[in-house]
Amino acid sequence: MAVAEQRTLPAQFVEDLGKDLATQITAQTGVPIVTTGIAGISQQPGETAEGFKARQDAAKAFTTRQQSLAGLAPQIAARDPLQTQAQQVAQAGIGSFQPFLTAAGQQATAADTTLGGISTGAPTTQQIQDFMSPYQSQVIDASLAEFDRNQQIQEQQIRDQQAKLGVLGAGRAGVQLAEFGTGAARERALLQAGLLQQGFNQAQAARQQDIANRFGIAQAQQGLGGFQAGLGAQQQALTGGDVKQLGTLGALNQAQEQAQLDAQREATRQATFQPQEQLDRFAGQVTGLMGGYPAQFQQSITPNPTPLQTALGVGTTLAGIYGAVNPRPLFADGGDAKEGIMQVAEIDMLKDEYDQYVFDLLEQRPEATPMSFEEFRRMVLSGQG
Questions:
Q1: Which of 12, 112, 254, 361 is the 20 to 30 Å CA partner of 330?
Q2: SS in 3 state form for the chain?
Q3: Is residue 107 classed exposed, middle or buried when 0-12, 13-18 and 19+ CB atoms within 10 A define those classes?
Q4: Long-range contacts for 346-350 (Cβ within 8 Å, ≥24 apart)?
Q5: Along the 385 residues of the chain, how does pLDDT read in single tens digits?
Q6: Residue from 29, 17, 32, 99 nearest 285 by CA
Q7: Burial readout 249-286 (b: 16 or more C-beta within 10 A, e: otherwise)
Q8: What is the number of other CB atoms lying within 10 angstroms of the CB of residue 234?
Q9: Residue 279, CB half-sphere, CA atoms under 13 Å: how many?
Q10: What pairs with residue 327 in β-bridges?
């Protein structure tokens, strides 16, 4: 079978670039990807020595690229001084309200201790006795002693007066002295009772004042209790504020830490995939060049002639040549010797082509049956006629 092929190839430098690109891609697919230096590489169970060496080489190359890309590594902006100051102030203010709560609790406890044991019912003798002046008995005794002394003086004056009148010892004088003694005793009892009543009243007033004072303290205690409750509620609010501040500071620190982790990850990614990215850029450039020089491939196929077509073509050509020299039919009766020689030569040539036809046919199709020489000759003559 005859094949005609026509190819339009790109420029040689483009073809060389394409081959180089294919070589690099093939080589790159066999390089393991690592994200750490040689210190972080250790042979794993079941890993071959060749595979471990390939990872070691890749780790060394990664370290080299990481150093080379240090100037391109992402940077994290430092925290602003105002942010640091705000964090310090917030941390210093956390729990600063606790001393106020402690002092309020101590005051409430002291007020409760002062108010403890008070009775709002009818006062008992013991309760009033507790408020009696410790000098009450001394005052009463001194007052009665002074009363007795004055009574004796007055009684002596009566006796002296009676002596001057000469009636001392008389009945009326005795009645006078007895009457004076009875009145003095009554006045002495009244004085003593008044002194006792005065002491009692003073003690009762002191007790009432103590009760009033304690109720005032109780009211103060209630106020402190309410204040303490308010501080408790405020403590919850301040605690919530602390939680919010801590959450804000935690989020700020977390964002800072996350930014550092992202920067480290980006630097590692750059160092890890730099070869692939360079190869991708190179492939894009080569692809662009190849797009400007498109390759074309054209192919046309012409089937080989069959043995019979070949033989008939040759035979027809021979018959045409002979007919041009001698227009008379082949194997015609009569003619000179030259014509006879031409006829014999032409038959021999047809016989050779017939034999070639038979050989080619049986070689290609062993089961085929070739036509006879006479049929072949008539077909040749028919083509000539």
A1: 361
A2: CEEEEEEECCCHHHHHHHHHHHHHHHHHHCCCCCCCCHHHCCCCCCCCHHHHHHHHHHHHHHHHHHHHCHHHCCCCCCCCHHHHHHHHHHHHHCCCCHHHHHHHHHHHHHHHHHHCCCCCCCCCHHHHHCCCCCCHHHHHHHHHHHHHHHHHHHHHHHHHHHHHHCCCCCHHHHHHHHHHHHHHHHHHHHHHHHHHHHHHHHHHHHHHHHHHHHHHHHHHHHHHHHHHHHHHHHHHHHHHHHHHHHHHHHHHHHHHHHHHHHHHHHHHHHHHHHHHHHHHHHHHHHHHHHHHCCCEEEEEEECCCCHHHHHHHHHHHHHHHHHHHCCCCCCCCCCCHHHHHHHHHHHHHHHHHHHHHHHHHHHHCCCCCCCCHHHHHHHHHHHHC
A3: middle
A4: 346/318, 346/319, 346/322, 349/315, 349/318, 350/315, 350/318, 350/376, 350/377, 350/380
A5: 455 566 667 778 888 888 888 898 888 888 888 888 888 889 999 999 999 999 999 999 989 988 888 888 787 777 788 788 888 877 777 777 777 778 777 777 777 776 665 555 555 666 666 776 777 778 888 888 888 888 889 888 888 887 777 776 777 777 777 888 888 888 888 888 888 788 777 777 777 787 777 777 777 767 777 777 777 777 778 777 777 877 787 787 888 888 888 887 787 877 787 787 888 888 888 777 777 665 554 445 555 666 666 666 655 555 554 454 444 444 444 444 444 444 555 567 778 888 888 888 888 888 888 888 888 888 777 764 3
A6: 17
A7: beeeeeeeeeeeeeeeeebeebbbebbeeebeeebeeb
A8: 14
A9: 14
A10: none
Q: What are the structure tokens assigned to 94, written together?
A: 């956390």
